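Hi! If you just cloned this repository, the fastest way to understand the data is to look at a raw example. We've pasted two of them here, unedited. The first protein comes first, obviously.
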Amino acid sequence: MLIKNVRNCLLACTLLASAAGATTIVQSSGNSEASVPLGYYAPYASYGMTPIVFAVGWTDTTDYVDVDVFANLFTPGSPGTVDYELVTAIGPGTSFAADGVAQGTATTPTNPADVSLLHLNFLAAGTYYLVLSSPVADTGWQYNYPFQANDTMANGVTFLGNQYSYGTSIDAAYAAGSGFSGIGYPVEFSVQGTATPEPGTFAVMGLALVGLSVALRGIRKRQAQ
């Protein structure tokens, strides 16, 4: 009986630990994984056309740890760059000082690939926007045709859709502060992380560990007799 109790306690702890593994928080993919992708978008458009800034947003009700943010990017012909910002609000009147979480620049590969943009040790429940733009013409591209996304969301996550800004709507000093409008085609990105356990999960884990301790104490007493 004691050995069975130990086995059950260990099984409970193992199941709880495995349940806390990394998962997809939110993901939107279009046509980038096709053998011959069709279409594209460029945060800075090609052929001398108007620059474009893209934003994609979501709301989650769970705290996450070890969060990684990716975007599917490329620059045809040679590596390029893309600027990114993770913020809690977009549009005129916003600022990174008030609404920013992380920002930086990533190098884009010559062929479409998931590019790691940033890693966060902790991301609290809330509303977030990933903003993509480019300081250099013809860089930071994504395939996104046909205009149909494959969206994946964890429990408690609401996808807020895709938006863009172009022309005089762009804030040259702060891309996330541009005037955005909704668009139907997908910004290809992915956010991965590990959900923090609910209080009830901690309680169950604590009970399992208490049971394990009692069982082991019983075994030691038997062995001492």
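Ok, and the second one:
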Amino acid sequence: MLTFSLGIVYGQESLEIYKKTDTVPKVVYKVLDDRAHTTIEIQGKDYLDDIVPTLKAEGINSIGHSTEKKALVVELKPGYKPVLINLSTLKNKYTNVKSERVLFKIDDRVVQQNPG
């Protein structure tokens, strides 16, 4: 006779976050820096990989790598000059948000670097 049973073994924790009977919301803190970041060098300056979606594909001449810096090197076409500003400057210039406690989200991804 074969018996199969599922249950919590002594010493294990349930991964269940919410229960149907909960009346108070639970706060779950996620470690924001859980993914590896790649360094991107553009025009001699280093950026994190969050900048890549802001570049236009037609403005990129070539992409290589630097083993010394452990970074991807993006060479832009001569006429392409992307406007790269940090998020704090963007917030101050284009919004009326005065708080220093701001979460930035680009393409449904929380920006995990210092906004500058």
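That's it. A detail worth noticing about the second one: The beta strands are 39-42, 45-48, 60-66, 71-76, 105-106, 109-110.
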